[in-house]
Design goal:
CATH architecture: 3-Layer(aba) Sandwich
Helix content: 55-70%
CATH topology: Rossmann fold
Shape: globular
Largest sheet: 4 strands, parallel
Radius of gyration: 14 Å
Number of helices: 7
Number of strands: 4
Strand order of the largest sheet: 3-2-1-4
CATH superfamily: 5'-nuclease
Length: about 120
């Protein structure tokens, strides 16, 4: 069981250089994420489409593939996420992933260096 964040899933969705590494890490794991993942993935796709309109169809297809992955989406406790954000200095968005990984006792899969560092420190 792992909590996966948008940075890791964007690598897969957009076939970025770290995609293979993330796929290998997720193989055989039950995936979990906070509900904000869906909007973060949608926004990342929108940004990619705006910056490279010629690849918009590919980016949307990647979003669809990632959102179709078997994954348990969790509501988060806003006050608990706030506490994690204050404790770590993370944004509330990133703190939601860290909070969920703590709440579930699951490893966190991320390509976000700041989030990964906070997870290791705390």
């Amino acid at each position: 069981m792992v909590v996966v964040d948008a940075s890791a899933l964007c690598a897969i969705a957009f076939d970025d250089e770290k995609a293979g590494e993330v796929v290998a890490r997720l193989k055989g794991e039950a995936l979990h994420a906070p509900s904000l993942l869906q909007l973060e993935m949608t926004n990342a796709t929108l940004s990619r489409c705006r910056s490279t309109p010629a690849l918009a169809e590919r980016f949307v297809a990647g979003l669809t593939r990632v959102l179709d992955l078997p994954m348990t989406i969790h509501a988060v406790d806003p006050l608990a996420v706030f506490a994690v954000a204050v404790e770590t200095g993370l944004t509330a968005y990133d703190a939601a992933y860290l909070w969920l990984s703590r709440d579930l006792g699951a490893a966190l899969v991320t390509l976000d260096r700041e989030l990964l560092a906070a997870a290791r420190r705390h």
